[in-house]
């Protein structure tokens, strides 16, 4: 966590999500885009699918990406991104070329272990140095935090790792804190669709139209501008609509 927060107002920003194909990069990008558009931003997207079908997990050929430009005066998804989110070493290696000099790289540090680095064909254990990356690198233990948050559920390991809570903090040094939260997921399958053929298909949506997320993003913008000096945490939770009817313990897993 950063000791101090620094808020910078910009007209637009380009974000690139990257990770293994099948791990939700396209869905995450779509949710981010829908929420951004919902609060009045212009958006332009570019999904970047891997050429190889069913490439080995963690391999260079299996990296999937989704780039989105958000803000005002947006006409293209951008050539380079301001923020690169890399869920594994292969994603960082393949997509670091799209990150602007001095940009921000957010990595799931849990995946940057010997096995993951070897799959991505790194020669050393310092991927950032080996790539000569000129960026602010933010190491986040995404996998560890996800597993800890869902430790008391009966979800299998694979399902647990597909859940991602997202949070941000204002004035993290303050001991007394206010927590604002909303879920950003939607029902993972269309089991209430009138057409039974769609019951096993996913739904492309977020928080029933992204209402709660949109409110909190606008709240975060105002807090960033005015900084009331209060310790504030904003949390977007996943796996809230995962459950089965009749089983109360299968709902609200992210929270």
Task: Explain this structure.
With 255 residues, the protein is of the alpha/beta class. Helix content is 25%, strand content 26%. The chain has 7 helices and 9 strands. It has helices at residues 25-38, 89-95, 114-119, 127-130, 142-149, 157-161, 207-226; strands at 12-20, 42-48, 63-71, 81-86, 99-108, 135-140, 166-170, 177-183, 231-237. The chain has a 6-stranded mixed sheet, with helices on both faces. It has a 3-stranded mixed sheet with strand order 7-9-8, covered by helices on one side. Helix 1 (25-38) packs across helix 7 (207-226). It is globular. It starts with 11 loop residues before the first strand and ends in an 18-residue tail after the last strand. 30% of the residues are buried.
Question: From the helix content, strand content and strand pairing, which structural class follows?
Answer: alpha/beta
Which ranges are low-confidence, i.e. pLDDT below 50, for 5 or more consecutive residues? none
Number of distinct helices = 7
In round numbers, the mean pLDDT is 86
Topology, number of strands = 9
Overview features:
single chain, 255 residues, 9 strands, globular, 26% strand, three-stranded mixed β-sheet, alpha/beta, 7 helices
List the helices and strands and how they pair.
Elements: E1 12-20, H1 25-38, E2 42-48, E3 63-71, E4 81-86, H2 89-95, E5 99-108, H3 114-119, H4 127-130, E6 135-140, H5 142-149, H6 157-161, E7 166-170, E8 177-183, H7 207-226, E9 231-237
Parallel strand pairs: 1-4, 4-5, 5-6, 8-9
Antiparallel strand pairs: 1-3, 2-3, 7-9
Helix pairs in contact: 1-7
């Amino acid at each position: 966590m950063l000791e101090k927060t620094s808020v910078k107002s910009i007209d637009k920003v380009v974000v690139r999500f990257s990770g293994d194909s099948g791990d939700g990069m396209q869905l995450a990008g779509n949710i981010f885009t829908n929420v951004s558009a919902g609060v009045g931003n212009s958006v332009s997207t570019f999904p970047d699918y891997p050429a190889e079908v069913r490439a080995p997990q963690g391999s260079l050929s299996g990296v999937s990406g989704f780039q989105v430009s958000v803000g005002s005066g947006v006409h293209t998804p951008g050539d380079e991104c301001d923020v690169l989110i890399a869920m594994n070493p292969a994603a960082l290696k393949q997509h670091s070329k799209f990150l602007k000099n001095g940009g921000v790289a957010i990595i799931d540090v849990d995946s940057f272990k010997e096995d993951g680095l070897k799959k991505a064909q790194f020669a050393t254990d310092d991927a950032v140095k080996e790539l000569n990356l000129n960026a602010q690198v933010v190491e986040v233990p995404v996998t560890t935090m996800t597993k800890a948050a869902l430790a008391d559920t009966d979800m299998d390991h694979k399902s647990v790792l597909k859940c991602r809570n997202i949070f941000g903090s204002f004035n993290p040094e303050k001991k007394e804190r206010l927590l604002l939260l909303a879920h950003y997921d939607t029902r993972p399958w269309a089991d209430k669709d009138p057409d039974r053929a769609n019951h096993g298909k996913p739904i492309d949506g977020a928080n029933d139209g992204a209402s709660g997320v949109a409110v909190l993003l606008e709240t975060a913008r105002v807090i960033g501008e005015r900084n009331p000096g209060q310790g504030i945490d904003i949390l977007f939770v996943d796996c809230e609509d995962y459950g089965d009817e009749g089983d109360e313990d299968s709902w609200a897993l992210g929270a």
